[in-house]
Amino acid sequence: MASHGNPKSGRVLSLFVLAMMNTALVVGLEGFPTMAGFGLGLITWYLFFGLVYFIPVGFVAAELGVGFPREGGVYAWVKEALGIRWAFVASWMQWIQIVVWYPSVLAVCALAAADIFAPDLGDEKWYTVPAV
Questions:
Q1: Domains of the chain by residue range
Q2: Which of 13, 94, 111, 112 is such that its CA lies 20 to 30 A from the CA of 79?
Q3: 31 and 25 in contact (C-beta within 8 Å)?
Q4: Distance, CA of 52 to CA of 54 (rounded, Å)
Q5: Does the pLDDT value for residue 109 go beyond 80?
């Protein structure tokens, strides 16, 4: 079994940080202006839907992790259940989604930051082209 990081580093991903990272992945930034119109009542709905979504997903991941206690994550789980071809497809889909999604979110964040802190910067090609 591979080691899981340097135990002496002292850096720990807390449950709160992990929950906020997962929430940010699902919610995204593009919906914030629309959400602002709903006001504080939206917090109740986010808590409700967060529990309805994240609790079952957490149970599924925990059950699969206990049921297939080896390294490999999604690939190992799908390979055990459906075979090597579908394990490759599942891993490829997960990988390509990350490769496409993360850069697009970073571009939106860079352009939004430019719009907030330096509105004229968003019109400059030397900033916009690398950001996109």
A1: 1-67, 72-132
A2: 13
A3: no
A4: 6
A5: no
